[in-house]
Amino acid sequence: MAEVATARRSRITPEREAELYAAVLDLLREVGYDALTMDAVAARTRSSKATLYRQWGGKPELVAKAVRHNKPGNTADVDTGSLRGDLHALTSREDDCAMQQNAALMRGLFMAVHANPDLLQAFKELLIEPEMEEFDRVVRRAVDRGEVRADCPALDYVVHMLVGAFATRTLIDDQPPTQAFLISYIDAVVLPALGIPTT
Q1: Angle, nearest 10°, between helix axes 158-173 and 129-144?
Q2: DSSP letters for 103-127
Q3: HTH tetR-type domain spans which residues (predicted)?
């Protein structure tokens, strides 16, 4: 199976793959998930629909991989020596404009996930689980350094807290998420919940 996937992917260069993913995200922002078609992606990217299906299997996998590709780097690679530094560094990887665009995109996709089990499955396998594994390594380093107790009950909810802040900023405050907001949230909510002083 891995050999087949590698063979399929070898036909598209990394640069071309990045172009395709960028086009998919642009289309998602323009029309939303439900109205996005493989025909539209093929036309926008001057690709054949057969190539898209051969490479990605279908719309859910293509969309999930496009969103994953858009993430700025590997979370687990960030290591400043402290969890506070790591969380601040991760927050600072996207400027406020990109964060606002991505928040709007993710809101639309979260709504689509509820009506599309295939998209939910693709998101879990290709985006959520890999991101959780990467983020878990960041948090485990904090435990190994002695910053956070291994039995701290908040450890299981760090991602929930961060995603919640990002996702509900617009809903509650009618404002987009920003670096300043998320950093203040990390210091006021996440780190105290883990028993890490911020002063």
Answers
A1: 120
A2: HHHHHHHHHHHHH-HHHHHHHIIII
A3: 14-74
Predicted TM-score (pTM) of the model is 0.81
CATH superfamily of 71-198: Tetracycline Repressor, domain 2 (1.10.357.10)
Does 1.10.10.60 match the CATH number of domain 10-65?
yes
Read off the amino acid at residue 180. A
Per-residue pLDDT of the chain (199 residues; tens, 9 = 90+): 444 444 444 468 889 999 999 999 999 999 999 999 999 999 999 999 999 999 999 999 999 999 999 887 788 789 999 999 999 999 999 888 888 888 888 888 888 998 999 999 999 999 889 989 999 999 999 999 999 999 999 999 999 999 889 888 888 998 989 999 999 999 999 999 999 988 7
Residue ranges of the chain assigned to CATH 1.10.10.60 = 10-65
Buried b (16+ CB within 10 A) or exposed e, 117-142: eebbebbeebbbebbeebbeebbebb
